[in-house]
Design a protein that fits this description.
Strand content of chain B: under 5%
Strand content of chain A: 15-25%
Family (chain B): Belongs to the COQ9 family.
Oligomer: heterodimer
Structural class of chain A: alpha/beta
Distance between the termini of chain A: 57 Å
Pathway (chain B): Cofactor biosynthesis; ubiquinone biosynthesis
Subcellular location (chain B): Mitochondrion
Largest sheet of chain B: none
Number of strands of chain A: 9
Helix content of chain B: 55-70%
CATH architecture of chain A: 3-Layer(aba) Sandwich
Largest interface: A-B, 25 and 23 residues
Distance between the termini of chain B: 33 Å
Order of helices and strands of chain A: HHEEHHHHEHEHEEHEHHHEE
Keywords (chain B): Lipid-binding, Mitochondrion, Transit peptide, Ubiquinone biosynthesis
Number of domains of chain A: 1
CATH class of chain A: Alpha Beta
Largest sheet of chain A: 7 strands, mixed
Shape of chain B: globular
GO molecular function, one term (chain B): lipid binding
Number of strands of chain B: 0
Radius of gyration of chain A: 20 Å
Bound molecules: S-adenosylmethionine
């Protein structure tokens, strides 16, 4: 398993491992991905974007699944490199910038070591502040926990953080979460990881194999918080997924999305593009031996709508958006979008 | 709309154009809430909870609950509990417009006295929340909140001079507002520690500040002194808001 052997190495010295260790990982590049299925689309089929290619919608689903199957196990390694990329970019642009911009996340501490951008994810969870409740009027009434749904939850990282926050910050042991993903191998990776958390086999944690565009097993108006982190850009029909989010949320419930986004600073934008189109797929190849999959990831980021556009899509689905509708992070490379499902006044 | 008159708390001399436009200012109209309708409704139902739960997210969640919203809807307020502070400032500023002092503006009452009475009225607007007001002040120096807080403070001074019937558009325009902002901020802070009945001590404190400023006002003659004075007044305002300069 690439990620397993790679991780200690990454933690020790990320800047050097590329030079000293590449030959070992290049040998893995023989592994092939299933995404390049022959194009069988009929002329009447609806098409969508797969990175910069235009493909039939049904095919995209298969391709996306392929990409994530390919990267599921080396996903952390890739994520580490992605964040290293952003970190280096900052260093390059602002060589003398204050430490909070360039300091590398302390990934070697605690469980978060397995993921990149821990600060971004922590900020996301912190800004949502899950598990809060009204002050209890009588000591006998236990406050209701939040019912949360983490879509495209992949390896469960966001979900564990949400539960941690609800439990430890807001003293809400009754808050629960369902991790949902379209991809069984991502989901089983999440299940595997949950075993090393305090939520192993806990009824507070459940898993659901589902396409975000069709959550028919989730009842309407049943969820307090719907999160999707670095996932929505992969959805074939984003408006449909947003309408499903709206349906499953309780009135007053929150849709929260963390996603790479259109970079607002044009200089940064240009540099980020050069960096991401060139280096990330290459690194992907070196780390996981699968250049095409990473090419897709980079291109799908590029394809994702700009902040204003995405905010309007959220509104279009019926949500009320707070403030200007989003919060830019790390110079606009990532952004948090939120929407609140309004309560219908009788 | 009030925002038209929200000139920044500035150390520059006023531009002639802004002075001219003020001459044609329409009588103080109700200004719209700084928040969208849904947030305004929730904030309005939050206000009664401030005395017990303070300027806190808990109060916001109680207000949301009153509107049928679950605790997760706290995400409506990216600025958190500061939304309550902002809303309170706006509401109390608006309340001055229907103040008796303004309505029964007797011909005999001078602008100066009206300014003082309006300032006192506004301070009394904090009566119900005064034991919680230090929480509010603790939130204001945050970089994301300070501009709003200062803008509100300036808008308040502006409103008070306007309601008092001050129409002068000379170079004293900024001095008056900066002076009043300073006096107001200092007295407001004093009031949070006042234990006397009916805030008598605060009232005396306010009187003394106005005394000081009359003397100062006479001293401030030339432009150089005026700028220096304004700079100091501005700094003091920031300091009283908790900014360490
Ligand atoms: C980049 S990963 C993000 C994982 C995790 N949320 C995180 O923050 O690291 C994207 C995930 O989206 C999932 N995904 C792609 N299309 C999906 C869809 N239509 N419905 C649900 N999940 C989908 C993939 O299987 C993959 O696990």
């Amino acid at each position: 398993m690439a990620s397993r052997t790679l991780r200690p190495l990454l933690n020790r010295s990320r800047f050097q491992c590329l030079h000293t260790q590449t030959p070992r990982y290049l040998s893995k590049s023989t592994k092939h991905h299933s995404a390049e299925a022959p194009n069988q689309s009929t002329p009447h089929e609806r098409t969508t974007h797969f990175g910069f290619e235009t493909v039939a919608e049904a095919e995209k689903e298969a391709r996306v699944a392929g990409v994530f199957s390919n990267v599921a196990e080396s996903y952390d390694a890739m994520n580490d490199f992605m964040s290293l990329g952003i970190h280096r970019l900052w260093k390059y642009i602002f060589p003398f910038s204050p430490p909070f911009l360039t300091e590398r996340p302390k990934e070697c501490e605690g469980r978060s070591r397995t993921k990149a951008n821990p600060q971004t994810r922590d900020h996301f969870v912190h800004s949502i502040n899950p598990g809060t409740s009204l002050p209890t009027t009588s000591p006998s009434t236990e406050p209701q926990g939040w019912k949360m749904l983490d879509i495209a939850g992949g390896t469960g990282d966001i979900a564990f953080r949400l539960l941690d926050h609800a439990t430890h910050i807001n003293a809400s042991p009754s808050s629960t979460i369902t991790i949902s993903d379209i991809n069984p191998s991502m989901l089983s990776e999440g299940r595997k990881r949950s075993l090393s958390t305090s939520y192993a086999h806990s009824p507070r944690l459940s898993f659901l194999l589902a396409n975000a565009e069709n959550l028919h097993t989730v009842p309407s108006s049943s969820i307090d918080l719907y999160t999707v982190a670095f996932g929505i850009r992969n959805f074939t029909d984003k408006p449909k997924a947003l309408r499903e989010a709206y349906r499953v949320l309780k009135p007053g419930g929150v849709f929260a999305c963390l996603e790479f986004s259109g970079v607002t600073n044009p200089l940064l934008d240009a540099m980020y593009k050069r960096w991401s189109f060139g280096a990330i797929p290459l690194i992907g190849q070196l780390v996981a031996g699968d250049r095409a999959s990473y090419q897709y990831l980079v291109e799908s980021i590029e394809r994702f709508p700009k902040q204003e556009e995405f905010r309007d899509m959220i509104k279009e689905a019926g949500f009320h958006v707070p403030g200007k509708g989003w919060e830019d992070l790390t110079g606009g490379i990532a952004a948090i979008h939120k929407g609140i499902k309004p309560v219908e006044k009788a | 709309m009030a925002t038209k008159r929200l000139l920044p708390l500035s150390l520059r001399l006023p531009k002639p154009s802004s002075l001219i436009s003020r001459k044609y200012h329409t009588p103080s109209q109700p200004s719209p809430s700084p928040f969208p309708a849904l947030e305004t409704a929730i904030l309005t139902s939050s206000l009664p909870h401030i005395p017990e739960h303070g300027f806190t997210p808990t109060t916001l969640r109680l207000g949301a609950h009153a509107q049928g919203y679950i605790p997760a809807s706290q995400n409506l307020f990216p600025q958190g509990a500061f939304a309550l502070v902002h809303f309170h400032l706006w509401r109390q500023r608006e309340a001055l417009k229907s103040c008796v002092v303004v309505k029964d503006a007797g011909k005999g009452v001078g602008v100066g006295r009206k300014v003082k009475e309006l300032t006192w009225e506004r301070l009394l607007g904090n009566r119900e929340v005064i034991h919680r007001w230090q929480e509010a002040l603790a939130l204001t120096p945050l970089p994301s909140n300070l501009p709003t807080a200062l803008q509100e403070l300036h808008a308040l001074s502006d409103e008070i001079w306007y309601l008092a019937g001050d129409t002068s558009v000379d170079t004293s325009w900024y001095t008056k507002r900066a002076t009043l902002s300073t006096i107001y901020a200092a007295t407001e802070l004093f009031m949070t520690t006042d234990k006397s009945s009916d805030f008598k001590d605060t009232s005396q404190f306010l009187d003394r500040r106005f005394e000081d400023s009359r003397v100062l006002g006479e001293m401030v003659g030339s432009v150089g002194e005026w700028v220096g004075y304004n700079a100091r007044a501005g700094l003091n305002v920031l300091r009283s808001r908790g900014v360490r300069i």
